[in-house]
From TrEMBL:
The gene is ATP6. Keywords: ATP synthesis, CF(0), Hydrogen ion transport, Ion transport, Membrane, Mitochondrion, Mitochondrion inner membrane, Transmembrane, Transmembrane helix, Transport. PANTHER family: ATP SYNTHASE SUBUNIT A. Signal peptide: none annotated. This is ATP synthase subunit a. It comes from Saurida wanieso. It catalyses: H(+)(in) = H(+)(out). Belongs to the ATPase A chain family.
Amino acid sequence: MALNFFDQFMSPTLMGLPLIGLAMTLPWILFTSPTPRWLTNRFLTLQGWFINRFTQQLFQPLNPGGHKWALLFTSLMMFLFSLNMLGLLPYTFTPTTQLSLNMGLAVPFWLATVIIGMRNQPTIALGHLLPEGTPTPLIPVLIIIETISLFIRPIALGVRLTANLTAGHLLIQLIATAAFVLLPLMPSVAILTALLLFLLTLLEVAVAMIQAYVFVLLLSLYLQENV
């Protein structure tokens, strides 16, 4: 029984072929494309308003040089948001619970921000490794610590997204199993457990949205240090 709880995180296969690629391309089908008409439907209007507000809030602290990343970061946030939300549906697979996928997204974006900083302003980029006013005996130690913290950033990005979604899915499955088992034995307790499951599902919807936003927000902060 304990092993079955983790079966939901296994990548599904069909005839030996992994279906994670299909699960990653499905969210793009759900987004409606803009039309040349002056009047659009409510969903398209809400989608456009949400993307505009997110882009303004995310890139307002950045200088104009970082605004080139607006389309890329907004697309990444919508992609992660769609994957996280679709993973809450029954009998679905959540690709963002795979650490390999999250690291595959975090490492290239983090490395791109570091390379841009080293290319455009190497003195300022290297200056982040040593805080101003550091005593001379602590300089080698602080450089080592800041270098380690720099390389831990992509690991923290991937692990944070994976851990939050995995923990939420496990809690939902555990409470759902408890409600199903308690229903014939103690119906009143099973109803309370089902109510707790409903509240937890609402919380997981919020977590799915927040984690997608936090992932892109941290990337924008890394970019802000290097542009």
